[in-house]
Design brief:
Blueprint: E1 11-14, E2 17-20, E3 31-35, H1 38-44, H2 49-56, E4 65-73, E5 80-86, E6 93-94, E7 106-115, H3 116-119, H4 123-133, H5 148-157, H6 170-174, H7 192-198, E8 211-220, H8 223-229, E9 235-242, H9 245-258, H10 262-265, E10 278-279, H11 283-318, E11 329-334, E12 336-345, E13 348-357, E14 360-361, E15 380-383, E16 391-396, H12 398-403, E17 407-408, H13 418-424, H14 430-436, E18 440-443, H15 446-451, H16 460-469, E19 473-486
Parallel strand pairs: 3-4, 18-19
Antiparallel strand pairs: 1-2, 2-3, 4-5, 5-13, 6-10, 7-9, 7-11, 8-9, 8-19, 12-13, 14-17, 15-16, 16-19
Family: Belongs to the RtcB family.
Binding site for Mn(2+) 1: 102, 210
Pfam family, one: RtcB
Length: 487
């Protein structure tokens, strides 16, 4: 299904937006809108992601349109790169497929006062120590162990609970989306299996597309925003991409099983069983929301602990405290989450559930939820690309509030399946190819690097240019990788 090309309609709205009219399929409640330039649009026709955009338009209570970002590709139920807002006052639903299995997968970026020339002589040792000390790999546990009671505290409080352990500071919390904690978390509703999977995985990277990268600011596009974030050309940063690990996966898996038959119970017709959902105001919907919030708070703790371990490694390699190295968190964004937010729909302000699956919040300057330090420039947006080319730092723009419920893209987006990427890598040494590009890469397996090789992804520069030109978010700085560790 995913590999079949899409032959349905894509009507031009603008140079960067294309419509699937609701007349395409009986049952669509709103249009589908896909943000892309022409080059990316042609890539999107290669799989069924646009069909999934149309399917999401069936969901009860959906507002304005079923939206998709320029990095979309096929996913479970919802496309990855999809956005959907539902209004509980109109029977709106919550759908685990609109959040994904890796609840609150996200990205954080930490700056330093080191320049590339400072670290170049020690790059081999630095990447080696990061690989040795930051746990990564399938099912890999870490140095932090939490009993069930401690784990529930993390899921209720988020990374603020780590301050008293000396593993977080107030500034880290201020620079985390939602201050790292969604109210209303219900860790008491998680299964024993979910709790068990989370006991030793908080502070571990995982596998797949998750990574920790040492990056260098390659080019600055917005001097004011870059200065506000403390970024300048040549500066060394650390980007971390991970989520809620086995705990979050189990929460999603449990929820999907619990929702079997629930759409039929409430008279909801779905074109795809993977869009399983429940009305927000139903026992089933409220249960998933409480569980999802708990897993989201766990994920923020996970990235906080990963950053703490990276700080430790830099301290050891460079012989100075992380504070002296200026290793401050710039920001942490979620890109697999559903949140209850206020947005203007037509002439009315509504409180809606915004599902962002492979999509990033991008609030503009002076939005109430934009951190105080960034009020004048907008919320930082972090867009990882691939380990051979680039990643980006952007800021949210007013256009996101007017077009996409305060949302922009989340990455480059895959253009090859993992199977196809491995097949294309046969006989090659991806680590040696990356080294020729100036990137030291370490992974648990050849397959891990092969699956995530640069050719597996679209060109992130094209994706970023699209959201920049569409007014969803604005370019601040381009980052190039120099060291990467993966599971």
């Amino acid at each position: 299904m995913a590999k079949q090309p899409y032959h349905g309609p894509l009507e031009k709205v603008s140079d960067y937006c294309w419509r699937i009219p609701k007349s395409y399929k009986t049952g669509m409640r709103v249009d589908g809108l896909i943000y892309a330039n022409r080059e990316l649009l042609e890539l999107m026709r290669n799989d069924q992601a646009p069909e999934q955009v149309a399917n999401v338009a069936f969901l009860p209570g959906i507002q304005v349109a079923s939206l998709a970002m320029p990095d979309i590709h096929w996913g479970y139920g919802f496309t990855i790169g999809g956005v959907c807002a539902t209004d509980p006052e109109e029977g709106g639903v919550i759908s685990p497929g609109g959040v994904g299995y890796d609840i609150n997968c996200g990205v954080r970026l930490m700056r330093s006062n080191l320049m590339y020339d400072d670290i170049q002589p020690k790059m081999n040792r630095l990447v080696g120590e990061l690989f040795k000390n930051v746990p990564c790999g399938v099912g890999q546990g870490g140095r932090f162990q939490f009993n069930a009671k401690e784990l529930r505290t993390l899921m209720l409080q988020g990374p603020r609970a780590l301050i008293e352990r000396g593993l977080a500071v107030d500034r880290d919390i201020e620079h985390t989306e939602a201050r790292g904690c969604l109210d209303g978390a219900r860790p008491d509703l998680l299964s024993d299996r979910a709790i068990d999977r989370g006991k030793n995985q908080c502070g571990t990277l995982g596998s797949g597309n998750h990574f920790l990268e040492v990056q260098v600011v390659d080019q600055v596009f917005d001097d004011e925003a870059a200065q506000t974030m403390g970024l300048k050309a040549g500066m060394v940063c650390v980007m971390i991409h991970s989520g809620s690990r086995g705990l979050g996966y189990q929460v999603c898996d449990d929820a999907l099983k619990a929702l079997r038959g629930v759409p039929e119970k409430y008279g909801i017709h779905l074109p795809d069983r993977q869009l399983a959902c429940a009305p927000v105001r139903s026992p089933e919907g409220e249960r998933y929301i409480g569980q999802m919030r708990a897993a989201a708070n766990f994920a923020w703790c996970n990235r906080q602990l990963l950053m703490a371990q990276a700080r430790d490694v830099f301290e050891n390699v460079f012989g100075r405290k992380w504070q002296e190295l200026g290793m401050q968190l710039i920001y942490d964004v979620a890109h697999n989450i559903a949140k209850f937010e206020k947005h203007r729909v037509g002439d009315v302000e509504k409180s809606v559930w915004v599902h962002r699956k492979g999509a990033t919040r991008a609030f503009p300057p002076h939005h109430p939820e934009t951190p105080r330090d960034y009020k004048e420039i907008g919320q930082p947006v972090l867009i990882p690309g691939d380990m051979g080319r680039a990643s980006w730092v952007l800021v949210g723009q007013q256009g996101s509030m007017e077009q996409t419920f305060g949302t922009t893209c989340h990455g480059a987006g895959r253009q090859l399946s993992r199977t196809a990427a491995v097949k294309k890598s046969k006989g090659r040494r991806i680590d040696e190819e990356l080294l020729k590009r100036g990137v030291i890469a370490k992974a648990r397996s050849w397959k891990g690097l092969a699956e995530e090789q640069p050719d597996a992804y679209k060109d992130v520069d094209l994706v970023v240019e699209t959201v920049h030109c569409a007014g969803l978010s604005k370019k601040v700085a381009r980052m190039r990788p120099v060291g990467v560790i993966k599971g």
